[in-house]
Amino acid sequence: MKVFVVGGTGFVGSALTRKLLEEGHSVTLMARHPKPGAASSGKRVEFVAGDGTRPGKWQDVVGAHDCLINLAGVTVFRRWNDAYKKLLYDSRILTTRHIVEAIPHDGGSVRCLINTSGAGYYGFRGDEELAEDAAPGTDFLSKLAQEWESEASKASSKGVRVAVARFGIVFGKNGGALQQMVMPFKFFVGGPVGSGRQWMPWIHIQDLCKAMLLVAEKEDISGPVNFCSPDPVRNRDLAKAIGKALRRPWFVPAPAFMLKLVLGEFGSVILEGQRAVPNVLLAHGFVFDYPRIEDALRNLLMD
User: Fold this and answer.
1) CA-to-CA distance for 230 and 288, rounded, in angstroms?
2) What is the pLDDT of residue 161?
3) Terminus-to-terminus CA distance in the chain, angstroms?
4) N or C terminus: which one in the chain shows less Cβ crowding within 10 Å?
5) Comparing C-alpha atoms, which of 128, 125, 141, 207 is closest to residue 170?
6) Is 184 within a domain?
7) Is the dihedral of CA 133, 134, 136, 142 positive or negative?
8) Beta partners for 233?
9) What are the Cα distances from residue 257, in Å, to 139, 262, 270?
10) 283: helix, strand or coil
């Protein structure tokens, strides 16, 4: 396949590009400031400069690809104010809108669009198990995900298969949320957040890349797909697993009021979580390399 990846030089995009190349696909990476060294380079990699939040010449090459993968979006893992909420919105909604607009009216060569979303789509639901057909939530992050997915779905009017990858927290070695999570443990002050009872949907980056290829290649997968382990964990169990992997104490709690003071509205997201499960992936025979958090952290923190 010829694959067009938006946001392809970031944490997830770099790993996904390497996986695509290993499987024999060719890749075009689009980023504001392409850095060929950020992903495996070679004859099957091209780089296109572009800002997805704006129309541009980058749109001219979209229709020549078999599969489009949109990973664009600034991180949610920081304090939100009105200005940053606008960045969250523009980097997701506008980029997706411009990708869809770039697809020819008859689809051109494009067979599928895989658009990122997040498990935050489901809102805060306590212990309820959340498969892909669960209703959305009502908080800011959920409404953002709903609009994000709605923009992506418009590609179906051009005959393009649309799949929405609702990411859990992505764990990998060289970036992402795990680096932030392990820092307190390295200073012997790690532990659960708030009550520690909140569910944390997560996925090892190796499984994420495998799942992305499965969705790209299987023509009968469309709509929402939860990209998360079949074994979601409570925050306190995640803290215990990190502490064990690092051989550090794991019982120093971060009080809820302190998290809200530091992170504001985003603190509520950390304190609530979602118990998302990957029913669509499992129904299509996907086998996780790292289904359990202990195995994933052993691979990422101890190897």
Assistant:
1) 8
2) 98
3) 33
4) C
5) 207
6) no
7) negative
8) 200
9) 19, 9, 12
10) helix
Q: What is the mean pLDDT of residues 163-179?
A: 91
> 216: closest CA among 27, 34, 39, 85?
27
Tokens 């979602």 appear where?
A: 274
Does residue 115 carry a pLDDT above 70? yes
Q: Are 200 and 252 in contact (CB under 8 A)?
A: no
- CATH number, domain containing residue 101: 3.40.50.720
Distance, C-alpha 11 to centroid of its chain: 10
The verdict on residue 196 lying in a domain is no
Q: Residues 41-49: contacts with CB within 8 Å, 24+ apart? A: 45/17, 45/21
Q: Which residue type, as a one-letter code, is found at position 119?
A: A
Two tokens, residue 214: 């499965």
Q: At what angle do helices 95-102 and 140-153 cross, to 10 degrees?
A: 10
pTM of full prediction above 0.90: yes
Q: State phi, psi for 107 to the nearest 5 degrees.
A: 90, -25
| Domain interval for residue 39 | 2-172+201-230+276-290
β-bridge partners, 174: none
- Does 258 reside within a domain? no
Take residue 207 and report the two structure tokens written for it. 């499984």
Residue 51 contacts residue 32 (beta carbons within 8 Å): yes
Distance, CA of 128 to CA of 199 (rounded, Å): 10
Count structural domains, the chain.
Answer: 1
Count of residues for the chain? 303
Region 3-29: mean pLDDT is 94
* 16: Cα separation from own chain's centroid: 11
Which of 99, 111, 94 is closest to 147 using CA atoms?
Answer: 94
Q: H-helix or E-strand containing 206?
A: helix 205-217
154 lies in some domain: yes
In the three-class reduction of DSSP (H, G, I as helix; E, B as strand; rest coil), residue 33 is classed as coil
- 190 confidence band (pLDDT: 50, 70, 90): confident
